[in-house]
Amino acid sequence: MKKLISILSLLVFGVFFAQNKINAVDVSSVQLRIMQKYRNSDSIQKKKIYSDSIYSPYQKLWNGYLGNSDKVIKWHNENESQIKAWQQKSEKINGKQISSSLQKFSKEMKKLTGYDTKGTWYILFGPAWTDLGGLGKYAMVIDLSHENNTSIEKVELILPHEITHQIMMTTNKHIDKTALEPIIGEGFAVWMNQKYWKKKYSLAQHLGYTDSELKACEQNLQNIKDFFEKNKFSEDKDIIDILRSRETKLNEKLPGAIGYYIGYKIIEQYVLKNGKDSWKDVFTKSPREIYEKSGF
Q1: What is the pTM of this model?
Q2: Which terminus of the chain is more exposed, N or C, with fewer CB under 10 A?
């Protein structure tokens, strides 16, 4: 009997461990609770409470996203007027919902890719510098303050994209500091997002473009390719910013983050040339090898 109990315990532990490779940390509920409770306190007390309860437990997150303790406390003080709006928003989308979705999507992405999703996701109210994004290779952030995050469906739309990035943090060990790395990485994440959702959403939605922005890319494909050919191996941060940032445009005709579109076209061409299951190569092969074997 003891042996049976021991075996069952190991099985239960194994299932629990397998289901918790995604660590979802709901900072947003802590922010709302603390800010509401102490909003009428004096500045000295608030500084200590905000530091002890909001900053210190998540120090690595805040240092990577917003700044040190003083900056985080200052930001929370300056945004106390947002508490009511945040509370109303949390009725539509909140950390509990997102945590559940992350567990669900990580399991489904494992079925699709064969890989576990490992890592930490922080759900918070912040400066809205990203809707969903990475803090280097440390963690992922979902900022509920961002205008894109209006419902759980909006967040779920892009989860396969972000989970693809998180899987690749573990599977792809190649170091590439050129523009090609984010181009292939983002393009593959877009391609995987489309593969997961099949025909539910348009390519423009997977790219984060409007329909007219996607059309502009298609109409100016040769100009985009010329820029890519000239700069694909560049390590210049300004060049990489044009390809990756949604705020930076190659020209007024095109959307920001054209690297997403270029990368998607490379992955699309790679799969056409190398076979329907060749997309799996991107998880382990270098960006340069994927590009060179794509024929793009």
Answers
A1: 0.87
A2: N
